[in-house]
Amino acid sequence: MCNFPTIALKISLLLLIPMNIAINIGELVFTRIRFKPNTNVFLLSINILACIIMLGFLTAGIYGTFRNRIKIIRTLMFSMVAFCLFRVVMWIVCGNLEVILSETITHVWFQINTAVSILCLIVTVMFCMRLHELSRQFLQGV
Fold first, then answer.
1. 105 belongs to a structural domain
2. Most buried in the list 26, 48, 109, 133, measured by CB within 10 Å?
3. What does the longest C-alpha to C-alpha distance in the chain come to?
4. What angle, rounded to 10 degrees, do the helices at 6-33 and 41-67 form?
5. Collapsing DSSP states into helix, strand and coil, what is residue 5?
6. Residue 142: which pLDDT band, with cuts at 50, 70 and 90?
């Protein structure tokens, strides 16, 4: 199914997850510094809450990647799918509503965080597929 070696996927995921955590924290700090009182606080709060929840899943994902725990990797994968879908929808909605929403919510850090999250999601899916394939081969005795 997946042609990349397991160790290469593991190393790339162990490099991408901390990078994603750092960019996620950078976005939170940038959002807090550039907060404008005339923005939609509800959308901003939902965005911040999603980032904080994702930080928890990413931290658990580091442990799952180190220990090759497929259930933790699957949980990370599903949470990243939900997070990336949320980010893309938020980007479309905020970009089309008002200019001030586009400036305060979908700023450069938001866009970088979304791109790195999608990249991390792709590697997580590949690593999860690889671990699933290895576990099936182990159970079949091949």
1. yes
2. 109
3. 63
4. 160
5. coil
6. low
The residue whose two tokens read 């991408």 is: 16
* pLDDT over 90 at 4, yes or no: no
For residue range 14-59, list pLDDT tens digits in order. Answer: 999 999 999 999 999 998 888 777 767 888 889 999 999 999 999 9
We report the CATH number of the domain holding residue 102 as: 1.20.120
Number of domains comprising the chain: 1
> In angstroms, rounded to a whole number, what is the distance separating the alpha carbons of residues 25 and 5?
31
pLDDT, tens digit, for every residue of 77-132? 999 999 999 999 998 888 787 777 777 788 899 999 999 999 999 999 999 999 88
Helix (H, G, I), strand (E, B) or coil at 3: coil
Q: Report the distance separating Cα 131 and Cα 125, nearest Å.
A: 10
